[in-house]
Amino acid sequence: MEYEIIKDNEVEKEIDISILPAELDRFIDREVSKIQKDLVIKGFRKGKVPKDIIRSRYRDTLKAQAMNSLAAETFVKILAEEKWRPASQPRLLNVEEGEKIKLRLSFENIPGFDVDNYRGLEIFEEEPLPDDFLLQQGLNELRERYAAVKEVSRPAVVDDFVTVNLRITENNKVKTNQGKVTIIIGDRSLPDEVNKALVGVRKSDDIEVNVGNQTYSMSIQKIEEKILPQIDDEFAQSQNYENVEQLKEKLMEQVKQAEEKRVEAELKESLSTILLERKKFKVPNSLIDAEYQKILQKFNLPDSDVNKERFWGLAEKRARLNLIIDKIAEKENIRVEAEEIMNLVSSMGWKLSDDNRENVIEYIGSILNREKTIDFLFKNAKIGKRSRIISPKEAIKNDTSSVRH
């Protein structure tokens, strides 16, 4: 086997591989042996079909399979020799056959970098949110949870529920035709243009909204307003409390526990930001796109120019942070045990099959390992105190701005 590196920048690699035809024949023989034991052809018993007949009858298929196997095996050897860490599967760009078989492969590589001075990072904890603010937030969330809705005939306003027949076209082609969909005006997961256009609509209106190269066509079916309950003794008793004071006492315990978790998450976010500021390197597009797709899926958003502009930078930070944390885990020998992974899989009620087992375990393992590494950094950090420099309302961050998942 011979190879030549055609492109060799920080993340993009392209290689030409030259292989003797005899090497391909060896792989074809291997493919023949794989299928021979189960092959049934009229006139021969199962597993007894001669190899030359198999070669003749399935020549093109065998050659394609052998070529893939040969390319994969050769690729692994080159990775080990060059000490590359692929971020994507290799793409076969070209095949030439002659005295030698020449394959051209391209793939994205994880750039080499090192991490140091990550113990004892200095972060600052702002004073907790005031108890009265936390209680009011808890009461507001409780009212939202038990809100009722009532259809109205007035024009729609922010926070109304608007049921629409929705169709999304892109470049004059229908991308989504969902029928009836209920939208909350002001939902930040929606494009701003859609939220603005829905304010003031009435039942039976038809509107079109352009968002980048997409057009949202909406036929208004129904407008409903939210009716929030009063938090009084009657409401408290419906929730199995003696009175509203007992409800507030229990709610206060819950919101303070939640605030402790929020403060810890905020500190870990600060750690993540420091790591990102210290380590700048080019991230493979395949890793960025994987994070971008997760963001779209989480918030049920379409892939569009607007959303790409909105979230691609965040996706790059998340992908780069993952690589940095993985490097720290490697240096500190931080590992997640198989039992921890299976306990989480079981607690989430996920079902493993032969088809998804390996992928699910790898995915869950990577998440747990990164969380364990962040916990390690948090325990070794220097945490100072400082007065709150933003309002309590501003402290409640939008999930779409966090560099941590």
List keywords for this structure.
five-stranded antiparallel beta sheet, 12 helices, Alpha-Beta Plaits, Chitinase A, domain 3, Trigger factor, domain 2, four-stranded antiparallel beta sheet, alpha+beta, extended, 405 residues, 3 domains
Q: What distance lies between the first and last C-alpha atoms, to the nearest angstrom?
A: 43 Å
- The CATH class designation of the largest domain is Mainly Alpha
Radius of gyration: 29 Å
Largest sheet features: 5 strands, antiparallel
Question: What pattern of helices and strands is seen along the backbone?
Answer: EEHHHEEEHEEEHEEHHHHHHEH
SS class = alpha+beta
- pLDDT < 50 runs, ≥5 residues: none
Q: What is the overall pLDDT average?
A: 90
Tell me the number of helical segments per DSSP (H or I, 4 or more residues long): 12
The CATH topology assignment of the largest domain is Trigger factor, domain 2
CATH architecture of the largest domain: Orthogonal Bundle
Let me know the number of strands: 11
Tally of structural domains: 3
Overall body shape: extended
Give the percentage of residues in beta strands. Answer: 15-25%
Residue share in helices?
Answer: 40-55%
What does it look like?
The protein is of the alpha+beta class and 405 residues long. The protein folds into 3 domains: 2-108, 2-Layer Sandwich (Alpha-Beta Plaits); 148-227, Roll (Chitinase A, domain 3), CATH 3.10.50.30; 237-401, Trigger factor, domain 2. The chain is 47% helix and 21% strand. The protein is built from 12 helices and 11 strands. Strands 6, 7, 8, 9 and 10 form a 5-stranded antiparallel sheet that branches. The radius of gyration is 29 Å and the shape is extended. The model has no long low-confidence stretch (mean pLDDT 90).
